[in-house]
UniProtKB/TrEMBL annotation:
It catalyses: 3-hydroxy-L-kynurenine + H2O = 3-hydroxyanthranilate + L-alanine + H(+); L-kynurenine + H2O = anthranilate + L-alanine + H(+). Belongs to the kynureninase family. This is Kynureninase. Catalyzes the cleavage of L-kynurenine (L-Kyn) and L-3-hydroxykynurenine (L-3OHKyn) into anthranilic acid (AA) and 3-hydroxyanthranilic acid (3-OHAA), respectively. Its EC number is 3.7.1.3. Homodimer. The keyword Hydrolase applies. Pathway: Amino-acid degradation; L-kynurenine degradation; L-alanine and anthranilate from L-kynurenine: step 1/1; Cofactor biosynthesis; NAD(+) biosynthesis; quinolinate from L-kynurenine: step 2/3.
Length: 403
C-alpha cells in the first residue's frame, strides 16, 4: 500500500501532461472522478468560449455566421478530429448527428451497397444502440443477424470474425474498445478478415477516440462512428462524428436525405441530389452550439499529442490494475479487463456482487465511477484530466466501501 501511494506521487511528479490537469473545471464535493469514459469534464475556458459565441458569432454576426463559418463547421471539425485522433485524411469525417443516428445512416448505406448479401455480423455483447440499430435494419431490409459471442474479458478476436463471416456477409459492426471490459480489438487484422470475404467493416469508436491513436486510413477501414462527450469532452449530448473512407464516396448513399446533405443547399430543388464527398452524410441543420466544447479539448490533445495521451492512459490503468490486485482481490473483487495494457482501452472494469450498493455509497462520498449491470464497476481514467493519485484514491475508496 505504501509503495502504491509513493509510486502514484512519483508518477504525478514526473507526468509530462500534469499541467493539463488544471485546464478542467474542479468539481465541488468530488474527490475522484472516474467516469471520464462516460462523460468528460468541462474545460475552464468553456464559459468564455460560450460567452464569446453568444456575444459575437451569434449575437453580433447573427445569420451571417452561417456563410462566414457555421456551414463548413461539420466538415472542418470532422477533419480536425480525423487528423488528431483518427489517422484519417481530410474530407472523410463529418460531425453531424447523435451516435445512434449516424450508426443507422452508415449501417443502412452499407447493406444497401451489398444487395446480394444477406447477413450482418455483430457481437451479442456490443453496446445496446449498435445492436438495436442492427436489429431494426435487419428487420426492414430482410437480413439475418449473425451474432458472435467472444470472451467477455478478452473481447473480439480475429478468429471469432473468421468463423462468422462468409460470402453472405454484407457488413460487420464492432466496437474498437469494448464498453464493458475495455478490451481493445485488433482493428487492422479484423478489418482485413472482413475484406477477405468482400464485406464492409464499421467500427464504433466511442470508447477509443481521444484516448487511443486510431489509424482508420492505414487499417483500410470502410466506416466508423464515434461520440464526442467522453474523451473529447464535448458535453452531454454533443454531436457524434462519422467517417466514410473516400473510396466509398459516391457509392454509398445515406438514407436520411435532408436538405443540408444536398449538392446545392439553397437551390430548394424539386428532387434530392446529394453533395459530393463526406458532406452528403449530413441531413439536417448542424448542431453548431453542441460543437463548441469539444474544440477546446481538441486543442489540448493537439498540444499533448494523442501518443502521449495513450502512454499516460496505459500507465494509469496499469497502476489501477496493480492496486486492484493488492487491495481489492483479497476482498473477492474480480478483474474484468485485460491485464495487458496494450490490449485494453482507457478504463478498467472490476466485479463484485455488492457493487450496486457500493457505487451508491461511493457517489455519496464524492467518488464517481459508474456501475454496469450486473455487478461491475468501471474506473474510467481520462488521461488529461485524471492524476495518478486520484486514480489510486478511487480504488482505495472501493476497498473502504467494501470493508
Amino acid at each position: 500500500m505504501t509503495d502504491l501511494l509513493a509510486e502514484a506521487r512519483d508518477l504525478d511528479a514526473r507526468d509530462p501532461l500534469a499541467a493539463h490537469l488544471e485546464a478542467f473545471v474542479p468539481a465541488a464535493g468530488v474527490s475522484a472522478y472516474l467516469d471520464g469514459n462516460s462523460l468528460g469534464r468541462p474545460l475552464r475556458e468553456l464559459p468564455d468560449r460560450l460567452a464569446a459565441f453568444v456575444r459575437e458569432d451569434w449575437g453580433t454576426r447573427l445569420i451571417r455566421s452561417w456563410d462566414e463559418q457555421w456551414m463548413d463547421l461539420p466538415t472542418a471539425l470532422g477533419d480536425r478530429i480525423g487528423m488528431l485522433c483518427l489517422g484519417a485524411a481530410a474530407g472523410q469525417t463529418v460531425v453531424a448527428d447523435s451516435t445512434t443516428v449516424l450508426l443507422y445512416k452508415l449501417m443502412r448505406a452499407a447493406v444497401a451497397a451489398r444487395p446480394e448479401r444477406t447477413e450482418i455480423v455483430i457481437e451479442d455483447g456490443n453496446f445496446p444502440t449498435d445492436r438495436f440499430i442492427a436489429e431494426g435494419i435487419a428487420a426492414e431490409s430482410g437480413l439475418t443477424l449473425r451474432w458472435i459471442s467472444p470472451d467477455p474479458v478478452a473481447g473480439v478476436q480475429v478468429a471469432d470474425i473468421e468463423a462468422a463471416v462468409s460470402a453472405r456477409t454484407a457488413l460487420v459492426v464492432l466496437s474498437h474498445v469494448d464498453y464493458r471490459s475495455g478490451a481493445l480489438a485488433d482493428m487492422k487484422t479484423i478489418t482485413d478478415a472482413v475484406h477477405d470475404v468482400g464485406a464492409l467493416m464499421l467500427w464504433d469508436l466511442c470508447h477509443s477516440v481521444g484516448v487511443i491513436p486510431v489509424e482508420l486510413d492505414a487499417c483500410g477501414v470502410d466506416l466508423a462512428v464515434g461520440c464526442t462527450y467522453k474523451y473529447l469532452n464535448g458535453g452531454p449530448g454533443s454531436p457524434a462524428f462519422a467517417y466514410v473512407n473516400a473510396r466509398h464516396h459516391g457509392l454509398l448513399r445515406q438514407p436520411i436525405q435532408g436538405w443540408m446533405g444536398a449538392g446545392d443547399v439553397f437551390a430548394m430543388g424539386s428532387t434530392y441530389a446529394p453533395a459530393g464527398g463526406i458532406r452528403q452524410f449530413i441531413s439536417g441543420t448542424p448542431p453548431v452550439l453542441g460543437m463548441l466544447a469539444m474544440q477546446g479539448m481538441l486543442d489540448l490533445i493537439e498540444q499533448a499529442t494523442i501518443g502521449a495521451v495513450r502512454e499516460k492512459s496505459q500507465a494509469l490503468t496499469d497502476l489501477v490494475v496493480r492496486a486492484v490486485d493488492e487491495e481489492l482481490a483479497p476482498l473477492g473483487v474480480r478483474l474484468l479487463s485485460p491485464r495487458d495494457a496494450a490490449l485494453r482501452g482507457g478504463h478498467v472494469t472490476i466485479g463484485h456482487p455488492d457493487f450496486a450498493e457500493v457505487t451508491k455509497r461511493l457517489w455519496a462520498d464524492g467518488v464517481i465511477p459508474d456501475f454496469r449491470f450486473p455487478d461491475g464497476i468501471r474506473l474510467g481514467l481520462s488521461p488529461l484530466s485524471t492524476s495518478y493519485a486520484e486514480a489510486l484514491s478511487g480504488v482505495l475508496a472501493v476497498r473502504d466501501a467494501l470493508s
